[in-house]
Amino acid sequence: MRRNYGKKKARARPSGDLLKLLATRPRAVALAALHVSESMLLELEASELLSAAEIRGLLKDASTTLRNAADQVDNRSCLIASEIVESMRENFKRNKT
């Protein structure tokens, strides 16, 4: 896999078709984001950029932030997202110990 950390590419704006897809398929968008995030965390660990403990800490911080947001705005989606992130943290902990 080729990596280019030196230069940043200009980001292309999403096409109208992509924006329509994102708007009509929120569950698919969330699932894609979840899998990409998990893959990135595994790659960060495999490339030794982050330790397993650092990744667990990152996931714990994310879960706590989401839970606090849910308490402040009474947002059930934030609470469920917090539970999903906490589950990822527990699975990561279980698989790495």
Query: What is the tally of beta strands?
Result: 0
Q: What share of the residues does DSSP label as strand, in percent? A: under 5%
- Helix percent reads over 70%
Between the first and last Cα atoms, what is the distance in angstroms?
28 Å
Q: Poorly predicted ranges (pLDDT <50, ≥5 residues)?
A: none
Order of helices and strands: HHHH
Shape: globular
Secondary-structure-based class equals mainly alpha
The rounded Rg comes to 16 Å
Q: Could you report the average pLDDT, rounded to the nearest whole number? A: 83
Profile the largest sheet.
Answer: none
Structural notes for this entry:
With 97 residues, this protein is mainly α. It has a domain at 50-97. It is 75% helix and 0% strand. The protein has helices at 16-24, 26-46, 52-73, 76-96. The longest helix is centred in the middle third of the chain and has 22 residues, at 52-73. The protein starts with 15 loop residues before the first helix and ends with a helix.
